[in-house]
Write a structure and sequence with these properties.
204 residues, alpha+beta, Lipocalin, 3 helices
């Protein structure tokens, strides 16, 4: 009887630990839908575009959202704007210098003020943002939507969870050596970044 009780207790603890374990979400979207939008607004000119080369992994525990860790990676050469000449400039050494700096990255270092309501968690996510080889610490107000067993609604016959990360924030262009010192009447001083990324955690 005692042996059975011990065995049952151990199983219960193991099951609880499994339920509380962080889940790894892969942000390389097989549908190719994930993207980051960027916008620079100046008095004489506005520049808007997207970046679609998104990869990275995030560890998220629905029972402890503040324990979030992970890294999102953007391929620099996936940055696109409608004007082809402007895109050439965007990829050039004066701007992003994609040949020398092929990746833009954000790596989580801290999460604060996490509040969960239903499937959504809002939090201030601090991390190291690296653009053009320059790393700055930034804090981003983010919304994390955890959808258990929702992968089949996105990919027929698939099993697994989805984590959608949404955020919008500003960075200073000069801070990352992007057209540093350029007058703000044609090139905006701030870059607005908007993210809506789905990470997938398939199950067997």
């Amino acid at each position: 009887m005692i042996k059975q009780l011990v065995s049952s207790t151990a199983f219960a603890f193991a099951a609880a630990a499994a339920l509380a374990a962080p889940i790894s979400f892969d942000f390389k979207d097989p549908k190719g839908v994930n993207n980051v939008a960027f916008h620079l607004d100046a008095p004489l000119e506005s520049i808007s575009g997207t970046a679609s080369g998104i990869t990275g992994n995030v560890m998220f525990d629905p029972a402890s959202p503040a324990a979030l860790t992970g890294k999102i990676v953007i391929a620099s050469n996936s940055l696109k704007v409608p004007n082809s000449t402007m895109q050439d400039h965007l990829h050039s050494p004066n701007w992003i210098d994609v040949a020398k700096h092929p990746e833009i990255t954000f790596e989580v270092t801290k999460v604060a003020n996490a509040k969960t309501a239903g499937t959504d968690t809002t939090a201030d996510v601090t991390g190291n943002l690296t653009i053009k080889g320059v790393t700055k610490e930034v804090t981003v107000p983010a919304k994390l939507s955890y959808m258990a067993d929702a992968l089949g609604r996105r990919q027929p016959n698939a099993k697994g969870d989805i984590l959608v990360v949404r955020a919008e924030f500003l960075v200073k262009r000069d801070d990352f050596g992007i057209q540093a010192g350029q007058r703000g009447d044609t090139v905006g001083a701030d870059i607005k970044l908007t993210l809506a990324l789905a990470g997938l955690a398939p199950k067997a």
